[in-house]
Write a structure and sequence with these properties.
217 residues, alpha/beta, Rossmann fold, Arc Repressor Mutant, subunit A, 6 strands, phosphoprotein
Length: 217
């Protein structure tokens, strides 16, 4: 079995060394590169194309959110897992909107980080258990009836595109996975968002959490 290739981005050398030591000792994982700032992270990820980037939120040059957005745009198959000390919902929403597939607190257990890497690498979404209740509570401010379709129920294809989008997959990746053109995926995505009355990926993630889509991988 081929090891998961992980990239570590954090502006503290001690943290990077600790993360590298933790990940490299885990069977089936290896750290293939590291960066001390957001711009360096984007440049190296573009060259190395790892499976997962463990991204600190607060970094110089480009913030974690900015670097995440650029990486997801240029390298849609690369998953990003945010790592931070921040527990504010605003940071979480910002990272999810940028395209991160998960959010782990630095104060969490090492086992949680390893689990999170595996989950996002498999196409899922991971929220640190220490903040999951807060995040999901914020996402589910409306009942399912309140988020009902404006123009009718989603078709099976619209549902699949919406679910994969919420799970962090880009349009090109979804197109390949479903054997569709990118333009068709964009059409399905726009149509599903319009039917659900949603305006951003963060709102789509809320809806996906509510519907249980993210637990389906």
């Amino acid at each position: 079995m081929v090891d998961l290739r992980v990239f570590v981005a954090d502006d503290h050398a001690v943290v990077r060394r600790g993360l590298k030591a933790l990940i490299d000792t885990e069977p089936g994982m290896t750290v293939v590169g590291e960066a001390a700032d957001g711009q360096e992270a984007v440049t190296q990820v573009r060259a190395l194309l790892p499976d997962v980037v463990v991204m600190d939120v607060s970094m110089p040059d480009l913030t974690g959110s900015q670097a995440t957005e650029q990486i997801r745009r240029e390298c849609p198959h690369v998953k990003v897992l945010a790592l931070t000390v921040h527990e504010d919902k605003g940071y979480i929403r910002q990272l999810l909107t940028a395209g991160a597939s998960g959010y782990v607190l630095k104060r969490g257990a090492p086992e949680g980080l390893i689990e999170a890497i595996r989950v996002v690498a498999a196409g899922g979404v991971y929220l640190d258990p220490n903040i999951a209740a807060k995040v999901v509570g914020g996402f589910i401010q409306k009942s399912p009836k309140d988020v009902a379709s404006k123009n009718g129920e989603l078709s099976d294809r619209e549902t699949e595109v919406a679910r994969l989008t919420a799970a962090g997959h880009g349009n090109k990746e979804i197109a390949t996975r479903l054997d569709l053109s990118v333009k068709t995926v964009e059409t399905y995505r726009t149509r599903s968002m319009d039917k659900l009355g949603l305006r951003s990926r963060a709102e789509l993630v809320r809806y996906a959490v509510q519907k249980g889509w993210l637990q389906e991988g």
